[in-house]
Amino acid sequence: MALRNIVKLGDDVLRKTCRTQLTFDERLHQILDDMAETMYHADGVGLAAPQIGILRRYCVIDVGDGLIELINPVIEKRSGEQTGDEGCLSIPGRFDPVTRPMKVTVRAQDRNGKTFTLKAEELKARALCHEIDHLDGVLFIDHVKNRENDLRKGRP
Ligand code: NI
């Protein structure tokens, strides 16, 4: 295992749409191991492949109840709402409130290509939404900006 360099805000790689991961081989496993190590080392609760410069659809999360690897994750259901401060390992030092679903159901593949479904709420739901956003080049600050725009337009 090895620590990977975390890409920071301003690098174009964070703004790209990632491609589907089609191979579930030793190379993928090696990258996933490195991503987990890099996330723990940086004290994060999630890390997405583009954050280490790889434009593929996978991420890792651990909100304190164990490591989850998600390959080609899709949010199938969202319900409720929560607003809380969010940060990102690619945007060090910035924390802003973001509104997310309270509960999500996510379908993904594991490191061997097996499909699974995961239900999550609160912090875990937030982390999943945040990491899956990364796979489409979306950062949490985009949601903050939208909120500021809403307020300017007089929306609640
Ligand atoms: Ni992030």
Task: Write a brief caption for the model.
With 156 residues, the protein is of the alpha+beta class. The chain has helices spanning 26-41, 122-134, 140-152; strands spanning 46-48, 58-61, 68-79, 82-86, 96-100, 103-109, 115-121. It has three helices and seven strands.
Would you give an account of this structure?
It is a single chain. The protein has 3 helices and 7 strands, in the order αβββββββαα. The chain has helices at 26-41, 122-134, 140-152; strands spanning 46-48, 58-61, 68-79, 82-86, 96-100, 103-109, 115-121. Strands 1-2-3-6-7 form a 5-stranded antiparallel beta sheet, sandwiched between helices. Strands 4-5 form a two-stranded antiparallel ribbon. The longest helix is centred in the first third of the chain and has 16 residues, at 26-41. The N and C termini lie far apart (47 Å). Bound molecules: nickel (II) ion. Nickel (II) ion is lined by residues 88-90, 130, 134.
Q: Identify the bound ligands.
A: nickel (II) ion
In the sheet with the most strands, the strands line up as 1-2-3-6-7
Number of E-type strands: 7
Task: Let me know the average pLDDT.
Answer: 95
Q: What helical percentage do the residues reach?
A: 25-40%
Which properties best describe this structure?
156 residues; alpha+beta; five-stranded antiparallel sheet; two-stranded antiparallel ribbon; 7 strands; 27% helix; globular; binds nickel (II) ion
Write the layout of secondary structure elements.
Layout: H1 26-41, E1 46-48, E2 58-61, E3 68-79, E4 82-86, E5 96-100, E6 103-109, E7 115-121, H2 122-134, H3 140-152
Antiparallel strand pairs: 1-2, 2-3, 3-6, 4-5, 6-7
The protein binds nickel (II) ion (NI).
